[in-house]
Amino acid sequence: ALSIAAAVILTVLIISWLTPTGLIEYIQNEYAASGKGDFPVSVYSSNPEYFGCRNDIITLTNDTYFEVYNTNGKLLQAVSHGMSNPQLEVSEARFLLYDRERYNISIFNYSNELHTAEFENTITCADIGRNGSYAVVTSSEVYKNSVFVYDKNNELQYTWNSANYYITDVAVSDNGKNIALCLLNSNAGSFESFIYILDFKSATPKDKHSFDDIVSSISNYGDYIFANGFDRAYSIKWDGGQTDLGVNGTIRCYDFDFDG
Q1: CB-based contact 77:112 (threshold 8 Å)
Q2: Coil vs helix vs strand at 19
Q3: CA dihedral angle for residue 96, residue 61, residue 112, residue 121, rounded to 10 degrees
Q4: Phi, psi of 207 (to 5 degrees)
Q5: In Å, how far from its chain's centre is CA 201?
Q6: In sequence order, what are the residues at sequence separation of 6 or more whose Cβ sits closer than 8 angstroms to the Cβ of residue 1?
């Protein structure tokens, strides 16, 4: 009997470790995502500003609504968010909705709003990682920008201030132990870009990458960071290394296959 109980406990621990934000939320999400709907779907978000599909979950938002569907067309939730300039960041189990150049964020799983927060300064950009950790970049009265990193339970884990460069984007690693920052500087009439990779042990970046291109956005892609330049694209490993992807021409949009 003891061996059976030990095996059950070990199995639960392994499943909890493998699921993005824990076993209970995994079960909640799987239950919410089950069931059938109908296509075509009449969405609340006419003229959506964001539309995407990840892990068989469809999300979309416009200036009024945030909506979640499964790939069978079943509506999981539709929320009137009340934001002026809503921006959506998507992870495997959760969604981060923030009001760019204003103050508020909301965090959702597949069927519920989990958390809301209001910041003292305006929000520039944000991202949410696979394990539910998230980072929010704000303006600052003292620095160019400030970064606040939280765990999945909304506890503040790390703060970093940029004294010299403006932060244009942020990415959170899958394990929530690192963030990447995209920074922009004007020097002698030309622009230069940097990507800093930070852990939460020091204010000194553990890795730095510089570009003579205007790199304005970054995204986490598993073991890599995708960096979008003005007319070039780069792949950077979280643990070091940089590759020019050989893209020529203005990049207007892109997407990832997270299943490989």
Answers
A1: yes
A2: coil
A3: 40
A4: -155, 145
A5: 21
A6: none
Q: Number of helices and strands (H, E) in the chain?
A: 2, 20
Helices 23-33, 2-18: crossing angle, 10 deg rounding: 70
> CA 185, 212, 171 angle in degrees (round to 5)?
65
The single-letter code of the amino acid at 76 is L
Count the residues in the chain.
Answer: 260
CA angle 87, 88, 94 (to 5 degrees): 150
8 three-state secondary structure: helix
SS3 of residue 11 by DSSP: helix
Q: Is the dihedral of CA 259, 91, 65, 98 positive or negative?
A: negative
pLDDT of the chain along its 260 residues, tens only?
Answer: 657 655 555 555 555 556 889 889 999 999 999 999 988 888 887 888 888 888 899 999 999 999 999 999 999 999 999 999 999 999 999 999 999 999 999 999 999 999 999 999 999 999 999 999 999 999 999 999 999 999 999 999 999 999 999 999 999 999 999 999 999 988 777 888 999 999 999 999 999 998 887 888 999 988 999 998 877 888 899 987 766 665 665 555 556 554 54
Q: What is the spatial distance between Cα 166 and Cα 181, in angstroms, rounded to a whole number?
A: 10
